[in-house]
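Researcher: Go.
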Amino acid sequence: MKILYAIQGTGNGHISRAREIVPLLQQHGDVELLISGTQADVKLSQQVAYQLHGFSFIFGKKGGVDHYETWKSMNLPRFVKDMRQLPLKNYDLVLNDFEPVTAWACKLKGVESVGLSHQASFQSKKVPKPKSIDWAQLVMKYYAPSTHYVGFHFKEYDDFIHTPVIRSEIRNLQTSNLGHYTVYLPAIADEMLVPILKQIPHVQWQVFSKHTKTSFTDGNVQVRPVNNEQFNLSLASCEGLFTGGGFEGPAEALFLGKKLLVVPMKFQYEQQCNAYALQEMGLPVIWGSNKNWLPVIQKWVLQPQTHRFNFPDETASVIEKVVSQFAR
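Model: Structure:
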């Protein structure tokens, strides 16, 4: 069996999930990997057959997507060319983790595909979503359309939705609490973030930044470039994680029993929905309308967080079901 697994390259969550899923897929056949996008800091250990430009959302430095840079990075002629050249008929199964080139190539050529992603869960009306109408809802629906969907979320909101894929390297971590707080906010510039954190001087902050190539320390704030292994060690030994409204990062923190505070990116509908779901579960959120983060962060640091989440290791059974149900 030949399997094409197409992965979105914006952010680290898609690649991180793929690192767990690829070896499981390889137990069922010959797997070829496709990645489009340019914003991930983590890499796959397996060879990538197709590295495409795709459509990437470019992180800004003020808490949201940089729409101008995102628009500049788009190349529609290249997108269409890549879409038409994909040899989809060579594959018995096409899986798509919110990757647009493969998704639209399948749609154009009448090839069935399976949306295997967190975003796939938003096909269900049972998933918590803000009531506001946002143009980004259309992006969620049409960015990477599939014929079938298998989703992941914080809860099993529907019969095709499963709890998060927690990587083996996270499941196998030895946890402790050394008292520091781990920070990953890729859409916030260091010069905006560090002065806020320094105002809580009794806390040690370990910040992993997309905006620096060298490590530095400013008072009680350590800033270092994003590194997967160092981040995992920091997360395993921290008191809590202060991060964006993504999915995999918050899910891993909750699995490890860490406190969690999220800041969803502005104008990023998926992150708004994730934060809305977490808030429904009683977890703290800093919304874009909040211009003064300090009181929220101080309260979060001082108060315990007693939520417990059970994310069983069911990824292998999910993949086996997908292969048996959807392979041609």
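Model: The two ends are 9 Å apart (CA to CA).
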